[in-house]
Every structure is written in structure tokens, then in C-alpha cells.
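Subject: Interface between my chains keeps coming out wrong

I've been trying for a while to get a sensible model of this assembly. When I model each chain on its own everything looks fine, but I need the whole thing in one frame so I can look at the contacts. Pasting all components below, labels as-is. Any help appreciated, I'm running out of ideas.
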Amino acid sequence: MRITIVGCGSIGSKLAKAADAMSEVKRIYLMDKRKEVAERVAATLNKGIIINSVEEELYHTDLVIEAASQEAAKEILPKVVARGVDIMIMSVGSLVDDEFRSMVFEKARVSEAKVYIPTGALCGCDGLRSASTGGLDEVELITMKGPKSLLGVEYMESRGIDVEKITEKTVIYTGYAREAVKLFPRNINVAATVSLLGIGFDKTKVTVVVDPEIKSNSHELRIRGEFGNMTCHTYNYPEPDNPKTSHLATLSAISALKRIVRNEWFGI
Ligand SMILES: NC(=O)c1ccc[n+]([C@@H]2O[C@H](COP(=O)([O-])OP(=O)(O)OC[C@H]3O[C@@H](n4cnc5c(N)ncnc54)[C@H](O)[C@@H]3O)[C@@H](O)[C@H]2O)c1
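Reply #2:
Try treating it as a single job with all components included. I did that and got this:
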């Protein structure tokens, strides 16, 4: 299998390293808007080749993996699926717009391309996916973060909130996933994943809490429905090179790639 990784940052670089060790992966095309970043990653691989745009080797690629940004995902998703190439998306918030999402999935249906969305930084997606096949009454995500992972978020800055000056546990947002994934585009992709798996962006409740005392970012997923109820609490360590990203998100991308290349679907 030949793969293309778009975005060679925290997730992309580790995914590339893991893919390099997979015997099923023959070639890894690497692309980053900062070419030097892709070059640094390629230098550590045996199978890495730099490309300048996702289109460059699209005919030679079996799977494109986006690990860049919502903007990148929005740009490449339609192009990739229209050519019938499979794609894995990490910036899941890019799928919040209903019209855009329908357009992408319609193109994918016609071309028979697959769109993969790893579970990312969240546990409990298996139960949510099964539960949503019956009736679901309530889905709620409570995300707790340390100040560092919310630095530079426009929503906070526009309200004059300096996260580094928060001294006690503080709720900074309550609302629904549709708004939350737009306000925190790099911080709660999992709200988008939960919405897609469960009851949608307009019914999934989201709370974001800042806690200066915590060492790990946590997600509490609460669901109630025909099956019963479930609470699943994930305590994540951040990636050392990017406090906005949880290590589990990187591991979920690697494990998704393993399942795809080996065609092994345990716990599906
Ligand atoms: N699904 C999840 O649970 C989950 C968890 C963590 C992160 N994410 C998302 O995954 C994405 C990658 O995360 P990360 O921690 O690796 O980020 P990162 O900032 O460490 O790396 C992103 C890389 O992508 C590159 N890039 C940005 N825009 C690009 C574009 N248009 N074309 C090509 N390259 C581009 C950047 O130069 C950077 O090197 C982010 O959007 C993040 O929000 C998802």
C-alpha cells in the first residue's frame, strides 16, 4: 500500500514513523505547507518521498491521511474522494458543515472511496456507535483541559480571557457541538466525532472546563438511550511537542492505519 500524509507535525510525524515500520506500507508520500517540516520527517524514514501537493501522486496513492488542520481537510477531502482514493481525517471538525459533508460523502459514494475517522483522543466510541443504532436520548461531552492546551484560542482572546491567569477550575463554554467545534477548532475534534457517531451536531451537548491543576486533558462521554447508559472517562497525556494534541489521538491514527493495511477489523 502507498500512503500520503498531509501534515507532518505532531501526529503526522509519528504516524509516518510507524507506517515506515509496517511491511504492508511500501511508500509514504509526505506533504506539509512548511516544506522543511516534511523534509525533516522524510530524513528519518526509509520509504518517505516529499511531494508539493496532495494531487501530485494521487494516482499512485491508496490512502491519504490528513493530519494538518480543518482548512487542509476541507481543501483535500473533495479532491481525494472524487478520484476514488480513500482518506483518513484527523481534523474531524472540518465535517461540521452539513452541506459540505453531504457533498463529500456523495462523491465518496459515487467513486467508492472510503472516509475513515479514527476515534482520536476519546474512548467509548464503540459503545456510542452501537447504541446509536437503537434510540439515543442524550449525548454529552465534558472536556477538561489545562491552560496550555487552550493558548491562542480566538474565542478566549476575544472575550479577554487569559487562560494562564485562571487559578481555579472554570467552565469556559457550555453549548452544542456545532458551535463548539468552530470555537475550538484545534481542541475538541472529538466533539465532532461524537456528533457523527451519535445524535448529530445540534443535539450533542458540550462543556469545556479549564483546570490549572490537572496534568492530563480529560474527556467524559455520557450517553443515555434504549441500551441503558454509559459514562466513559478518558484521561489523556498530551504530546510533548504539542500540548493541544493528546497522545491517544496519535495512537488512534496509528492503530487505524494498522487495521486498514492489514484488513483486520476486531471490535468493529
Ligand atoms: N481527532 C482527534 O481526536 C484529534 C486529536 C488531536 C488533534 N487532532 C487534529 O489533527 C490535526 C493535526 O494535529 P497535530 O497535533 O499533528 O498538529 P500539528 O500542529 O503538530 O501539525 C500540523 C502540521 O500540519 C501542517 N499543515 C497545516 N495546514 C496545512 C495544509 N493546509 N497543508 C499541509 N500541511 C499543513 C503544519 O505545518 C504542521 O506541520 C489538527 O487539525 C488537530 O486539531 C485531532
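Reply #3:
Confirming on my end. The first strand starts at residue 2 and ends at 6.
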